Predict the structure.
Amino acid sequence: MTVPTESIDLLTLQPEQKTTAIVLSVVVALFVLELIRRRKLREEQSTLWLGTAVLLVILAIFDSLLSWFASLIGAKTAPSALFFGALLFLMLVALQFSIRLSKLTYRNRKLGQRVALLEQRLDELSGSGPVRGAGATDSSDA
């Protein structure tokens, strides 16, 4: 069954698309809540995912918002606007994780330096050689 293109409003979601968007959003929200319950996801990250799920439900229910967004970005169809929004969202999530990774890398290096300084200080205070098991290797172990 083919439907003439002229009879379809491309800036609104079709009923099947609305249903799919709402169901997937609810599933994502429930999955995020389960991850929080199992302590696999922290609350600070969960707000982003729950907010996204709520936003998708709102956009699926209120076509006028999605149509406005599609016309704002110059998209020809509502699903294209959703894909653009999803791509933008994922880029921002990747940027957020890159920032966190950079901070953790810096903190890890600082901690390693502090541990090395503390080990050196411990060696100086004990008056002996390197502390066994603290990264120093003995030639008899090889």
About this structure: The helical segments are 15-37, 43-61, 63-73, 78-126. The CA atoms of residues 32 and 46 lie 7 Å apart.
